[in-house]
Write a structure and sequence with these properties.
The protein is an alpha/beta fold. It contains twelve helices and eight strands. The chain has helices at about 30-45, 55-65, 65-70, 80-90, 100-115, 125-140, 160-170, 180-195, 205-210, 215-220, 225-230, 235-260, and strands spanning about 20, 25, 50-55, 75-80, 120-125, 145-150, 170-175, 195-200.
Length: about 260
């Protein structure tokens, strides 16, 4: 039986196989290796945070130093988005695989169903969340969802939510809230939650519920997944992506300028 508590190093088998890009670090793993790492966290029983950094998050970190610190102290930082994979090849710092996003979360849920790890879902609207709770065990027979709570609560209500999660004795907590809310919730409550694998999954609960769909493969390969999401939720997302994409391109231009200046040829 695994033990819980605030003991041991925050890093379990921290990998030296990392990529530094746009001034931040990523763990350079395959999906299978990232899922293996999460299982190591579960077996160790010490609360850990697992976060996925995408272009929007990287832009947000420029204006939220506290968010950047949260990612830099994360026990696992996965790479989310083809833009980073393309940039990695251009800078000769290639990623082995895109580990952030639904493909890793589905792998984690598949292993949870097979090995008996329990899951708590936090985030989204109540109707979306309830649909996800109904749908996931159909997709992953044997999956144990031991609790859920919507993502609309105040900091003053944190303790009640944390207590519900703690009492569930879940192995995996998937927090599907907007950034930086989900990261800040995990950071300030990590040890009180007592969950070995606390994972920020962003909008994945809407995907689990079937309310949104993954972009076609050709759009993902062309770095146009953001456009597919805007098409599904235009009023909510068009301005966010317009601004964040422009700022991300500025970060990329800065990185390429630095690389060119340091290139002896």
């Amino acid at each position: 039986m695994r033990q819980r508590g605030r003991t041991g190093d925050r890093r379990v088998n921290a990998s030296s196989n990392q990529v530094q890009m746009l001034g931040v670090r990523f763990d350079n793993l395959t999906i299978a290796e990232a899922a293996d790492r999460i299982e190591e966290f579960i077996r160790a029983g010490v609360p850990r945070k697992i976060l996925a950094r995408n272009a929007g998050i990287r832009v947000m970190e420029e204006h939220h130093p506290s968010l950047r610190r949260i990612y830099e102290t994360s026990d696992l930082v996965t790479v989310d988005g083809m833009a980073f994979l393309r940039l990695g090849r251009l800078l000769r710092r290639p990623f082995r695989e895109m580990t952030g996003g639904p493909f890793l979360w589905y792998e984690v849920l598949l292993r949870a169903a097979r090995k008996g790890y329990s899951v708590f879902l936090l985030g989204a609207r109540t109707e979306v969340l309830q649909r996800a709770v109904q749908r996931l065990p159909l997709l992953f027979p044997g999956l144990k969802i031991v609790g859920y709570h919507n993502g609309y609560f105040t900091i003053e209500q944190d303790m009640q939510v944390v207590e519900d999660i703690r009492r569930s004795h879940s192995d995996i907590l998937m927090v599907g809230m907007s950034s930086p809310l989900q990261e800040e919730f995990i950071e300030r409550n990590l040890y009180q939650l007592g969950v070995p694998a606390c994972i920020g999954v962003g909008g994945a609960i809407d995907l689990f519920a079937g309310f949104v769909r993954l972009a076609p493969v050709w759009m993902r390969r062309a770095c146009l997944e953001w456009l597919y999401r805007v098409w599904q939720e235009p009023q909510r997302l068009w301005k966010r992506y317009l601004v964040s994409n422009a700022r991300f391109l500025l970060l990329v231009a800065r990185e390429l300028t630095i690389k060119r200046a340091g290139d002896p040829y």
